[in-house]
Amino acid sequence: MRGIIWFRRDLRLHDQSALTAACAECDEIIPLFVFDEPLLQSHEFGSACVNFMLGCLENLRSSLNELGIPLQWRRGDQVEEVVHAAREWKADRVYWNRDCEPRAIDRDRRIQQRLEDLGIAAQTYKDQVVFEAGEVTSVSGEPFQRYSAYRTRWWSHWYATKPITVPVPQPMKSAHLSEQLSSFSLPTADELGYASMTPWVEPGERHARIQLQRFLDGPIHRYADGRNLPAIDGSSMLSPHFRFGTLSPREAVLAALGSLSKRGHVSRPDVLTWIDELIWREFFQHVLASFPHVAEGPFRHVAVPPPRELGPERDALFQAWCSGQTGYPIVDAGMRQLNQTGWMHNRVRMIVASFLIKDLRIDWQSGERYFLRHLLDADLAANNGNWQWCASTGTDAMRGYRIFNPTLQSKKFDPDGTYIRLYVPELSGLPANKIHEPHLLSSDEQARYGCHIGTGYPAPIVDHRRARQEYLDLGKQVDR
Ligand SMILES: Cc1cc2nc3c(=O)[nH]c(=O)nc-3n(C[C@H](O)[C@H](O)[C@H](O)COP(=O)(O)OP(=O)(O)OC[C@H]3O[C@@H](n4cnc5c(N)ncnc54)[C@H](O)[C@@H]3O)c2cc1C
Hints:
Elements: E1 2-7, H1 17-25, E2 28-36, H2 37-42, H3 47-67, E3 72-76, H4 78-88, E4 93-97, H5 102-117, E5 121-125, H6 147-161, H7 176-180, H8 205-217, H9 223-226, H10 239-244, H11 249-259, H12 268-290, H13 312-323, H14 329-341, H15 346-359, H16 364-374, H17 380-390, H18 406-413, H19 418-423, H20 443-449, H21 464-479
Parallel strand pairs: 1-2, 1-4, 2-3, 4-5
Helix pairs in contact: 4-5, 6-12, 11-12, 12-17, 14-15, 16-17
The protein binds flavin-adenine dinucleotide.
């Protein structure tokens, strides 16, 4: 039997459901990756994401070579390319792992239908999550709309089903056709229409596994506090790996739980807090799959203040936010980190999102699109779920009138300004007690620290106290 394994967001060999099944069932395997031409041309995702993906593919290619099944790639419309490859290579079956995004579900349905019309079987598997939407539901079978209830059920399902990983396939002995097919080098980012850059997080399955181990050996045991401090190595930085499937979430949960049985300073609450974040990730995938309208608009229509009207003032404020020129150091550090590296710390993501929506009163979807285009870990479900949380329109929304004070957040989570100094060099000479509010510097201090407000570093583009009050007043009006 000849099978095609179509790689998508699962660029690894370990605990890879479709790959393991294909290798067990077929005598000949042809691994395929299709660069989605319309998606690439839309530039919905940016260079950071594309360069990371290319690095992962390069790593996958060398691992597949060792298995004796060289990776083939194509570029074009995914439906046409997969169907064409299956016909050309006379495949009996095409294997892939399922995706929760509405667009991907629609695409997969169309491919499955076309393959079935040709008498080719499509075999699909769960892989991106430990539990898919539909597996973790309320007693009456309804999808959960609150994280806490979902989480409780997730854990009971975990203990009831005891998930295990699937083995890495053995080298294939007779992949004749696959070897005959010429395997060209992968396209470069430039060839795909994106700027080349070195990914901020090392791409590829090998690095994902090293990074997981490094995290489990140290930072996880201080995670509950450490994850909030952007200046330290307090979180796993594995999100791009989960995004491209270079690490299996099932394996990550098992490894984290396994670390509890090792000797040493293992902190159960820290480990469970980290697994909670993986469950948040699954929860947002469950929300997207169960309520696909969230991809286009709010999960629920709630009375929140309307965004500022379109026009030059709104555009200038949005531009200042995008380029990290708001005059709020923690916001500017976050946005500049994003623009330079494709990464932003989670606490800072929440601060900049709240600032955009509540201080600047700009629609959350503009922020969502900007993040998608710049993040290394850009992921529709996680990005949308978090933006909706910050905008108070989501499932577990931030309380409507809770508004982050960017200065207090900055003082609390980056007390000595280490993170700010990394990305806002204009402020690098300021002492810790001045760095969070540089606009309060006297002219003598500005001269002493070499930081001139208005010319060297912007004055705040809005006054937080006034913006907060305006937001609250507008909120009272829409609440009536
Ligand atoms: C406005 C906003 C937009 C975001 N956009 C994305 C996005 O596009 N892609 C993305 O992967 N994450 C997104 N997040 C969630 C979170 O910021 C990142 O997952 C996290 O910063 C990644 O760092 P880490 O791998 O070190 O996470 P860790 O703290 O080590 O957490 C482990 C894993 O859990 C998952 N996770 C952690 N926090 C969240 C969360 N709040 N929601 C969903 N999953 C989570 C990630 O897969 C992460 O790798 C967003 C958060 C906000 C506030």
